[in-house]
Specification:
By secondary structure, the chain is an alpha+beta fold. It is about 20% helix and about 35% strand. It contains 7 helices and 16 strands. The strands form 2 sheets. Strands 1, 2, 3, 6, 8, 9, 11, 13, 14 and 16 form a 10-stranded mixed sheet that branches. The longest helix has 13 residues, at about 45-60. Mean pLDDT is about 80; it is low at about 5-65, about 145-150 and about 360-365.
Length: about 375
């Protein structure tokens, strides 16, 4: 179905065409540009302004370091890592996109002769003064991958390397939604008559970890390329940016609070997304969380003409890990199931269902 990642908390996913979201210190900060080669569709006004603001924010978060200066230069020139890697290759230097990504996130740094030569050429490609990047390199580091601290490290533990969320956010993934954290999240997932995802609505209670927080970014990821957002409504907050990255099957939302929060102040963000029918029925919905939530409530409403024969809840330690704590949950008279989790730990929290092969209202297979 889909997965949802909000600022610092959780992404949700439903097989067969669903969505996910990220917010706050537990949400995923997002950038309105897709991964290399990704087609992006802006669906809200002021997208250009939002990108500019985010780029300036990224530039102010460590440009005095090698990773920060590299990110700033890439943003300023508007070059993807794919294009930079290709330009280096044309000049006889082979540096992969993955290595460039690791450099700009501070997980590794150029040390070998070939890598240092690449830095010199990068300065030319990015139109920087000679030595602007090389002068920022620190002493040689111990061998092995360095796990970044803070929000990025927590997200990587749950999402893994090169996740859809990381690709959707680009350079902003490193610092996304560091100014807020999620306290409570309520997801409502609605299924259509064909058993495919129809709509998702989310209410997120956020708390500022520092003074001045005024926005959060959310990423919703869909399993099925046919499932695309057709309508976006924000009832609490103001939609500043909505970009659908078709190649990544992901929607990036930037929602402004309407005011700057004081430290430890709270705010509520609510949004709803209607989705075009996917090709196959959805079978689950997941939300990932990289920090502790005080409370998480997930509701899934089924169409009376497409009721599941079985529903169960489960938890994954990270994306792709086997499910555990699997437990059956009953369908109510309102044709919905729900899961309420207090003191929700980091990880992936999902609900799955099976339409079976029964008859009328007891598991008819949609489609």
């Amino acid at each position: 179905m889909s997965s949802d990642t909000d600022t610092d908390v959780t992404p949700a996913e439903a097989a067969g065409g669903g969505t996910g979201d990220a917010t706050g210190p537990d949400t995923a900060g997002a950038r309105a540009t897709g991964a290399p080669g990704t087609e992006a569709h802006a669906t809200a006004a002021r997208t250009g302004e939002a990108i500019t603001t985010s780029a300036l924010h990224a530039a102010a978060t460590g440009a005095e370091t090698f990773p920060g200066a590299l990110r700033e230069a890439l943003n300023r020139r508007g070059l993807s890592l794919e294009r930079v890697s290709e330009r280096l290759r044309v000049r006889g230097i082979t540096i992969s996109q993955a290595t460039l990504s690791s450099w700009q996130r501070g997980r590794s740094q150029p040390e070998r002769a070939r890598s240092l030569r690449a830095v010199d050429v990068l300065e030319e490609i990015l139109e920087l003064p000679a030595g602007a990047l090389r002068s920022l390199l620190g002493p040689r580091r111990p061998r092995g991958r360095i796990t970044p601290p803070g929000a990025e490290g927590a997200a990587l533990q749950i999402l893994g390397e090169d996740s859809v969320v990381e690709k959707a956010l680009g350079a902003r993934f490193r610092h996304f939604n560091q100014e807020t954290s999620s306290l409570m999240v309520h997801d409502i997932v609605r299924m259509g008559e064909s058993g495919t995802l129809s709509a998702i609505s989310t209410t997120n209670v956020l708390r500022a970890s520092r003074a001045g927080a005024d926005r959060a970014i959310f990423v919703l990821s869909f399993d099925d390329e046919a499932a695309e957002p057709v309508d976006i409504r924000v009832s609490c907050g103001r939609l500043a940016e909505a970009t659908y990255l078709k190649g990544l099957k992901s929607l990036v939302l930037e929602i402004h609070f309407g005011r700057e929060l004081a430290k430890l102040d709270t705010t509520v963000v609510s949004y709803a997304v209607e989705v075009s029918p996917s090709k196959t029925p959805a079978t689950h919905y997941e939300r990932w969380s990289r920090t502790n939530l005080h409370e998480y409530l997930q509701q899934v409403f089924f169409h009376p003409g497409a009721l599941p024969s079985d529903c169960h809840r489960y938890v994954r330690e990270k994306v792709g890990a086997p499910p555990r704590a699997r437990r059956r949950i009953p369908l109510s008279e309102s044709h919905d199931v729900h899961v309420l989790t207090s003191r929700c730990k980091p990880g992936v929290h999902g609900v799955a269902w099976d339409y079976g092969t029964g008859t009328s209202g007891t598991g008819d297979r949609p489609g």
